[in-house]
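Reviewer 2 asked us to include a model.

Predict the structure of this chain.
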Amino acid sequence: MSERAAELLRAHGLRVTAQRLEVLEALDGAAGDTSAQSLHERLRDAGSTIGVATVYRTLGSLAESDVIDAMQHGGHVHYRLCAPGHHHHLTCVECHAVLELRDCDIDDWVDRQAKRHGFTGVTHTMELSGTCSDCRVAS
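Predicted model (structure tokens):
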């Protein structure tokens, strides 16, 4: 992942630093999405000396540069290293499994609304949440 992570950073105009590589590699190993605190704990458990403030700053910088996705649910921000390209998220409220939804049927609607109200350069994100089939069966 290190070389792929380094290339990802360069492609987004970011300097390659040890902290960014460490955070990206930890996100790459996450099954679903993760909070900054959980990611920091996982890094520390693996022997990292990275500070919690550095994790928060690094995640914020990576999300702001569109290297990773930041999602709001459960009253907290969670982060995920996603495949490139436009997509939305369907997140399980129980286990935090995340599906990337590539089909976006609302582009035409967004374009119409933007034009109607005189907006340009409009982007959108959508987060859907519910209970996945595995968690529903377990209940």
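The chain has six helices and five strands. The chain has two domains: 2-80, 88-138. We have added this to the supplementary material.
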